[in-house]
Please model this.
Amino acid sequence: MPPERVTPIDEFSGIPLPLAPQYMAERPSRYKPNDHHSWHSRLDPLLHDSVGGLALRGSRVQMANFDTHNLDYHRDNFDGPPLPQNDAERLRPIVLAAAGYVPDRAISFTPQHHAVLVPLSKQVRAALWNKGKIRVERFSSVQAYLQEITFSQDFSYFENATIDEFLTTADESRRQQIGRTFLTYAVRSAIEPISPTYSQAYRAELLPRYFAQTADRFVLGRLAKRNSMRLLCKRLEERLAA
Model:
């Protein structure tokens, strides 16, 4: 795509810049607001050919004024952002998007339909979080990706006796205790490259305060959401037995 039509990226997070809500609120439209996907185009194979691609596509949408989204953004200015090429490149934007990261800049448009970058205040970011204007579109896709990177870790760090106990014990409480230890280790290993970035974003108040302060706690919480520890232990059993 022509360089001038590439959507600008927030370099810190790797997430495309959002649309400025101040501008959209002032612009009337004959049509209802619709969802602006941060990652597009919709038919690009990189967003559909893997668990990670589906998670990236579903990791962020923003409620947008119809004309701002379809005319100013898509028609007049942007074809889309550069897409991460593999799961290593997808990790940072997926986790930060799922955690609600919003940068301090956004895309706005002049009356002549030219794109400009404008600052986002703390108050505007808080409104985006509290009103659900920016959100995860498909939590199940994001969760599937987080589980995939977690269960792909090397569990040989643990002693064989501990693994055998997990696989054979009839004490479900003990089994889940060991399983949680395994998962905590695996999550920390999987997201170690982005943990400092997450912590820095939290300290800078670019993440909402109702999520965990550290990346490992956040991802562990997302893994367990809508899944019981029993189900996670069942998948862990399959991974260790293999």
Observations:
- Residues 151 and 235 are 8 Å apart (CA to CA).
- The longest helix spans residues 172-191.
- The chain has eleven helices and seven strands.
- The longest strand covers residues 105-109.
